[in-house]
Amino acid sequence: MPVAIITGASKGLGRALAVALARRGWDLVLDARSGAVLREAADEAGKNGTRVEALAGDVTDAAHRAELVAAARGLGGLDLLVNNASALGAEPLVRLEALPVEGLRRALEVNVVAALGLVQEALPLLRETTGGAVVSVSSDASAEAYETWGGYGASKAALDQLSAVLAVEEPGLRVWAVDPGDMRTDLYRAAAPLDDDSVRPLPETVVPAFLRLLDERPDSGRYAAPSLLLEAR
After folding, report:
1. Does residue 47 have an active-site annotation?
2. What is the pLDDT of residue 21?
3. Taking a C-beta distance cutoff of 8 angstroms, is the pair 57, 33 a contact?
4. pLDDT at 156
5. Lower CB count within 10 Å: N or C terminus of the chain?
6. Residue 152: active-site member
């Protein structure tokens, strides 16, 4: 069975993607900071009969990243790495003039540094498999200028660039940065608690865009989930 590591998998997009992959027969290594909620996500995915390893921890911890990759090795290898764990930098988001430097540093550590660290840890396994892939969950804030989204957007722009360079350096892999579009998630509610998010789509509705990438395996690059979903109709 193919094996995937998904960070930030206890809820939202990470959890929805984990369940969808499990339904397709994937074995999973799931990460999140909250052990209890992560266990619930793992139990949901595991109902599909696949093997699911749930490892609670912080992706900024090198030892935890090594543990995730070791778990994948124990399941037989690694076919897909999904860098989904994210930090906002401030909750709720604030203008740049008020953004705490420590908050920006945290966003960069989680969204960029930890993602690269996990890629580095996972590369030997990804290179061994046929069709290894890395998915980095991006944001439209990485390419557009939205008030209060500066710190988070800057971290995602850096993640996009790392993904683009990784694709050049690792031509044997598929490396996709994916902007999932607006979603009804706890992360968005923490970013903008006064916004009405009832009109935003649930993460489950975005998952088919990620599955399309895995099915069709287009060239490495940056993709927008809404466009992938529209083209699939």
Report:
1. no
2. 98
3. yes
4. 98
5. C
6. yes
* Number of C-beta neighbours around residue 187 at 10 A: 17
| Residue among 136, 139, 142, 152 flagged as catalytic | 152
| Average pLDDT, 10 consecutive residues per value, the chain (233 residues) | 98 98 98 96 97 98 98 98 98 98 98 98 97 97 97 98 98 98 93 90 96 98 96 75
Find the catalytic residue in 86, 136, 138, 163: 138
- Cβ neighbors of 183 (< 8 A, separation 6 or more) are 12, 13, 200, 201, 202, 203, 206
pLDDT at 222: 98
Query: Is residue 156 annotated as part of the catalytic site, yes or no?
Result: yes
Burial per residue of 65-91, b for 16 or more beta-carbon CB atoms within 10 angstroms, e otherwise: bebbbebbbebebbbbbbbbbbbbbbe
Give residue 199's identity as a one-letter amino acid code. V
| CA-wise closest residue to 88 among 185, 226, 227, 222 | 185
Cα–Cα distance, 211 to 209 (Å, whole number): 5
Using a cut of 0.85, tell me whether the model's pTM lies above it.
Answer: yes
